[in-house]
C-alpha cells in the first residue's frame, strides 16, 4: 500500500481535525452532527475536502492563545501522592502545561503513567503506579459526567491499562481538593487509605484481608462510619488474579487486572470524603448547560430504551439480525442452541424477556439521568437471593453465550459471584468457555478441575469454577485465575481456540463479521477491547450514527478506527459516559469544557487532545517492546469462518489483517511497524516521547 509522507504529515498534524471541519461544534445536537463529522473527515481522507496544515501553531500554543482569562481554571492543580512503601502521603502541584495538553481523566492518567512508570517495571512490583484520575468534567453536575480512570501497567497484558468506572469516589476526590491520586510503592501488610478534605492517612487493614467485596463494604462502614465513598478489591485482587477488578461503590473498573496491582501493593481499600465544591470556572454558565442537556437527554428516544433494558437491548440484534453474538467459545456466531430450544423464538438472555420479570429498579452512575443499570433480583427457586446490577450486554455473552448457559438466573448468579469476588466478568466467562472447550477436546479432565465436570451449558459447573478462580483455590484456581493466555501457557495447549488479544479476552462482538471492529480490537492499546474505539456503533448501525459503514469492506477502516479512537479518548478524558456520544457528541463538549475551565477549545482541538492521549498510550507500549507483531487476532477469527446464521462464512484472513494494519498505521501517521513518527509526536507537543522510543522521521 502506498504511503506518501506528505499525506502522513497532513494527517498527523494537530491541525488535521481543524482543517477537516473548521466549524466543528457548530452542528445541531445529536445524530446529524455525527454524520456530518464523519462525512467531512471521510472527504478529507479521500482528498475531496480542501484544508491546509502548514505553519500551524502547536496545540499548546493555540490553547494558550484561546484561553479566556489566562490561567486554566476549574482544577485545583494538586495531586495526592500516596507512598505505600513508607505509608506516607505528599502533595504535588501539577504544571499548567500538563492540564492544557491532557486535561484530566484518561489523558492526564496516560501522562502520569508515561512519566512515573519506568521502562520494564514489573506490573506487580512496587515500581508500577496506579493513577486514579477523575475526568475533567466529573462531578460538576453534567449528566453522566461521573467517570474516573485508573491507569497502570497491566499485569494481564503488559501494556498500558485504562480502566474506567462511574465512581462516587472520583467525585469525592475532587471535592476533597485533589485532581488526581497517585499510588506508589507497596506496603508489607494490608492497609486502607483514608482521604478527607485535604488530609490523608493510612490505617491497618489486616482484619479486612480475605473479605469479599460486600463484606468489605459492611466492615468499612462499621469501622469508619458512614459518608465515605469507597474503592476496594476483593479476594481475586488479593490473590493477584490477573483478571481482577477494582470496585468503586458497586461499579467496576473491570479490565486489565487493576485489582491485582492494588493487591500487590496490599491496598485493600480507599475511603474518600470530600465536602468542598468541585471547582468550576463559570458556575452560572455550567448550570445553564446542565439544564439544557438534561432536557435533550430526557426527551431523546434512546433514553427510554436504555432505562428499560440497559445495554442488553443490543443482544437480539447481534444474535438474530447480524449473527455476530459469539457463542460456544466462538464456535458459533449466534446463540444457536438457545434459539433451537426457544418455542416462541425468544431466549431468556434477551432483556425483553427478563427485564419485566426480574428488574426491581434502575441503577445509575453518579449524576446520570439516563440510567442503564438494572437491579436484577431473583426471589425464588434455585438461585433465590441473587441480586446484581446487570447483567449487561457483555456479561450476557461472557457468562451466557460463550459458555452456552441459557438460564438468565444462572447468568445473574455468575455475575454476582464475579462482582463479589472481584473478577472481570468478560475475562472470567471467556476463560471458563475456553476451559469447557479444552474439556470437550480431551485436553482437560475432572481430575485437573478438582472433580468439577465442566461442560458447555452446565451452569452449576460454571459457578463452581468461578468460585475457585476468584479465590485461586485448588487446581482450578491455579490454572484459570489469570485468564485464558496464562491458562494456555500453563497447560501448554489450547492456544488455537483461545479468544484473546495481547492477553485480554475479547468482548461480545464476533469480529469475523466486521472488518472495522476486528481492526479496532487488534490495535487497541490495552488488548481485546470494544471501548477504546467504539467502532461497533458505526459498523453495526443503530442510534449512534444514522450512518452505517459496510462492515464487510476493507475500504477506509484505518481512518474510521483512528477517528473513533480519538473521539473515545476525549470522552474518557472528560469523564463523560460514552453512551451519550449520540447526544453530546462534539457540540456539547466544548461548551462544557469552556464553562469548567475557561479554555475556549474547539471540538477539533478536543479531538487533538484525544489524539495526543492515544499516541502517548501507544508510545508507552512501544517503549515496552510492543509493535506490529502484537496487533494480532485470535487464530479462530482468522481460520474458522462463522459456520451459519446471518454472517455465515465471514472471517478475517491473515492477508486482510495486514492490509487493515497498513491502512490504519497510515491513517495514524505511524511507521509500518506501528511506531508513531517523530514529526507526529513533535506536532502533538510530545518531542521527549519521540526521543524516548527512538521514533523515526518525518
Automatic annotation (TrEMBL):
Cited SMART domains: AFOR_N (SM00790)
Gene3D superfamilies (UniProt xref): Aldehyde Ferredoxin Oxidoreductase Protein, subunit A, domain 2, Aldehyde Ferredoxin Oxidoreductase Protein, subunit A, domain 3, Aldehyde ferredoxin oxidoreductase, N-terminal domain
Top EC category: oxidoreductase
Cofactor(s) demanded: [4Fe-4S] cluster; tungstopterin
Pfam entry (one): AFOR_N
EC number(s) on file: 1.2.7.5
Superkingdom per UniProt: Bacteria
PANTHER family (UniProt xref): ALDEHYDE FERREDOXIN OXIDOREDUCTASE (PTHR30038), TUNGSTEN-CONTAINING ALDEHYDE FERREDOXIN OXIDOREDUCTASE (PTHR30038:SF0)
Protein name per Swiss-Prot or TrEMBL: Aldehyde:ferredoxin oxidoreductase
Lineage of source species: Bacteria, Candidatus Bipolaricaulota, Candidatus Bipolaricaulia, Candidatus Bipolaricaulales, Candidatus Bipolaricaulaceae
Amino acid at each position: 500500500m502506498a504511503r506518501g509522507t506528505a499525506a502522513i504529515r497532513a494527517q498527523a498534524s494537530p491541525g488535521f481535525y481543524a482543517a477537516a471541519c473548521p466549524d466543528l461544534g457548530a452542528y445541531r445536537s445529536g445524530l446529524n452532527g455525527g454524520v456530518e463529522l464523519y462525512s467531512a473527515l471521510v472527504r478529507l481522507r479521500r482528498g475531496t475536502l480542501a484544508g491546509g496544515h502548514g505553519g500551524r501553531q502547536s496545540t499548546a500554543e493555540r490553547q494558550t492563545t484561546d484561553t479566556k482569562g489566562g490561567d486554566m481554571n476549574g482544577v485545583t492543580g494538586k495531586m495526592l501522592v500516596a507512598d505505600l512503601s513508607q505509608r506516607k502521603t505528599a502533595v504535588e502541584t501539577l504544571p499548567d502545561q500538563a492540564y492544557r495538553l491532557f486535561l484530566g481523566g484518561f489523558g492526564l492518567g496516560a501522562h502520569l503513567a508515561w512519566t512515573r512508570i519506568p521502562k520494564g517495571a514489573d506490573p506487580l512490583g512496587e515500581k508500577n503506579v496506579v493513577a486514579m484520575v477523575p475526568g475533567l468534567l466529573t462531578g460538576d453536575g453534567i449528566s453522566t459526567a461521573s467517570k474516573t480512570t485508573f491507569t497502570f501497567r497491566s499485569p494481564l497484558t503488559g501494556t498500558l491499562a485504562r480502566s474506567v468506572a462511574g465512581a462516587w469516589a472520583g467525585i469525592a476526590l475532587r471535592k476533597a481538593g485533589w485532581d488526581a491520586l497517585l499510588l506508589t510503592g507497596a506496603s508489607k501488610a494490608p492497609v486502607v487509605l483514608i482521604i478527607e478534605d485535604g488530609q490523608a492517612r493510612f490505617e491497618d487493614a489486616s482484619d479486612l484481608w480475605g473479605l469479599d467485596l460486600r463484606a468489605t463494604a459492611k466492615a468499612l462502614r462499621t469501622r469508619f462510619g458512614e459518608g465515605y465513598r469507597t474503592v476496594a478489591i476483593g479476594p481475586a485482587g488479593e490473590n493477584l488474579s490477573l483478571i481482577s477488578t477494582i470496585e468503586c461503590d458497586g461499579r467496576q473498573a473491570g479490565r486489565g487486572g487493576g485489582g491485582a496491582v492494588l493487591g500487590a501493593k496490599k491496598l485493600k481499600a480507599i475511603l474518600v470524603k470530600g465536602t468542598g465544591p468541585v471547582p468550576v470556572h463559570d458556575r452560572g454558565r455550567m448550570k445553564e448547560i446542565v439544564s439544557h442537556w438534561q432536557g435533550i437527554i430526557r426527551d431523546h428516544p434512546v433514553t427510554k430504551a436504555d432505562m428499560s433494558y440497559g445495554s442488553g437491548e443490543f443482544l437480539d440484534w447481534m444474535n438474530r439480525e447480524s449473527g455476530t453474538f459469539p457463542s460456544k467459545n466462538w464456535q458459533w456466531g449466534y446463540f444457536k442452541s438457545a434459539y433451537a430450544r426457544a418455542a416462541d423464538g425468544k431466549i431468556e438472555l434477551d432483556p425483553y424477556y427478563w427485564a419485566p420479570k426480574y428488574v426491581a429498579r434502575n441503577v445509575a452512575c453518579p449524576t446520570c439521568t439516563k440510567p442503564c443499570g438494572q437491579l436484577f433480583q431473583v426471589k425464588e427457586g434455585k438461585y433465590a437471593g441473587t441480586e446484581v446490577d446487570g447483567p449487561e450486554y457483555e456479561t450476557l455473552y461472557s457468562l451466557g453465550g460463550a459458555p452456552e448457559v441459557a438460564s438468565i438466573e444462572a447468568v445473574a448468579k455468575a455475575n454476582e459471584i464475579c462482582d463479589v469476588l472481584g473478577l472481570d466478568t468478560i475475562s472470567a466467562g471467556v476463560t471458563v468457555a475456553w476451559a469447557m472447550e479444552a474439556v470437550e477436546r480431551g485436553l482437560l479432565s475432572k481430575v485437573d478441575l478438582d472433580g468439577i465436570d465442566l461442560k458447555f451449558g452446565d451452569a452449576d459447573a460454571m459457578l463452581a469454577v468461578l468460585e475457585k478462580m476468584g479465590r485461586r483455590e485448588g487446581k482450578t484456581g491455579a490454572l484459570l485465575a489469570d485468564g485464558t493466555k496464562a491458562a494456555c501457557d500453563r497447560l501448554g495447549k489450547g492456544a488455537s481456540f483461545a479468544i484473546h488479544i495481547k492477553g485480554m479476552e475479547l468482548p461480545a462482538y464476533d469480529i469475523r463479521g466486521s472488518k472495522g471492529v476486528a481492526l479496532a480490537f487488534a490495535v487497541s492499546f490495552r488488548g481485546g477491547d470494544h471501548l477504546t474505539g467504539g467502532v461497533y456503533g458505526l459498523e453495526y448501525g443503530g442510534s449512534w450514527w444514522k450512518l452505517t459503514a459496510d462492515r464487510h469492506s476493507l475500504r477506509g477502516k484505518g481512518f474510521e478506527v483512528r477517528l473513533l479512537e480519538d473521539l473515545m479518548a476525549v470522552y474518557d478524558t472528560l469523564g463523560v459516559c460514552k453512551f451519550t456520544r449520540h447526544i453530546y457528541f462534539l457540540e456539547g463538549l466544548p461548551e462544557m469544557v469552556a464553562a469548567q475551565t475557561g479554555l475556549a477549545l474547539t471540538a477539533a482541538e478536543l479531538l487533538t487532545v484525544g489524539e495526543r492521549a492515544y499516541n502517548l498510550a501507544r508510545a508507552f507500549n512501544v517503549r515496552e517492546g510492543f509493535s506490529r507483531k502484537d496487533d494480532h487476532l485470535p487464530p479462530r477469527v482468522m481460520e474458522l469462518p462463522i459456520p451459519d446464521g446471518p454472517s455465515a462464512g465471514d472471517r478475517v484472513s491473515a492477508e486482510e489483517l495486514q492490509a487493515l494494519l497498513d491502512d490504519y498505521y497510515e491513517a495514524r501517521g505511524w511507521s509500518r511497524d506501528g511506531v508513531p513518527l517523530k514529526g507526529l509526536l513533535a506536532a502533538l507537543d510530545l518531542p521527549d516521547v519521540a526521543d524516548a522510543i527512538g521514533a523515526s522521521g518525518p
